Amino acid sequence: MKNTSYVTQLALAGVIVMLLLTGWKPQAPATTVARAATEAACSTGRTVQVSGAAVINVTPDRARIQLGVQSNGPRPDAVQEENRRQIQQVIQAVRALGVEAKDIATDYYFVYPVYQDYSDLSIKGYRIDNTVSITLKDVNLVDDVILAAIKVGANEVQDVQFDTSELRKDRDQAGEQATIAAQEKARALGQAAGAQAGCVLSINENTWSTYYGSWRGGRETTMWAQNVIQNAPAQGEAVSDEESPISLGQIAVRAEVSASFSLE
């Protein structure tokens, strides 16, 4: 038994020596080999940095209105009572149009004295600014809400903003288009330099949205500087010019990416 064990050990030692002499090495797992090959292909030492941007134009389907009541009078308690009565009338008028209570919130409430003039500290009265923010899930109600509020005492319309309930989806779409634009630019620059764009070494994204068609006039023009402009289909039923003084325009959901590619 001892002789057999000794012979076996000698045989195994001989096999190991032969494998070492022939240059045999343990095989790495397939995933490790693939990763090493990818890293080697991307580590060329030559890169190209590019940016790409895209805009998705969508029709807004939500609106946010800021309106309120400004009240003035010689006595603060009387001003407060009058302001409270009028703002409640405004809220009730908006609720009567089907707007839920959770979509109406006080935006700010200021009470401050009114002086005789800038150089005199004598107080001649008090003023209260009470503004509510109203979120509309139906953009067709924008002009109805404003008119109803004004009829019952609202005397300030601070702002009207439009947005979309599909912002995440539109941002993702814009980001995809911007990435494709960056990749195409990298290929074009690489070919012009006698090389070929390879692996993506890094990529960063920025997204934002801009309303085109301001309530108070003026239009943004930054969309013309983009690589890709795409109009998404309208969601729901838009307000026509014949039905309402509100022209919705479009929301420009813009994405921009900066990326670095290897050059082969």
Element layout with pairings:
Blueprint: H1 2-21, H2 30-42, E1 47-58, E2 62-73, H3 76-95, E3 104-117, E4 120-136, H4 142-151, E5 156-163, H5 167-192, E6 197-212, E7 228-231, E8 250-263
Parallel strand pairs: 1-7
Antiparallel strand pairs: 1-8, 2-4, 2-5, 3-4, 6-8
Describe this structure in words.
The protein has 264 residues and is an alpha+beta fold. It folds into 2 domains: 118 residues, Translation Initiation Factor IF3 (2-Layer Sandwich); 102 residues, Alpha-Beta Plaits (2-Layer Sandwich), CATH 3.30.70.2970. It contains 5 helices and 8 strands. Strands 6-8-1-7 form a 4-stranded mixed β-sheet. The chain has a 4-stranded antiparallel β-sheet with strand order 3-4-2-5. Strand 3 and strand 4 form a beta hairpin. Helix 3 packs antiparallel against helix 4. The radius of gyration is 34 Å and the shape is elongated. The two termini are 63 Å apart. 25% of the residues are buried. About 9% of the residues have low confidence.
- CATH topology of the largest domain: the name is Translation Initiation Factor IF3
- Classification by helices and strands: alpha+beta
Fraction of helical residues: 25-40%
Tell me the number of strands: 8
Strand order of the largest sheet: 6-8-1-7
Q: What are the key terms here?
A:
2 domains, four-stranded mixed sheet, Alpha-Beta Plaits, single chain, Translation Initiation Factor IF3, alpha+beta, 5 helices, 264 residues
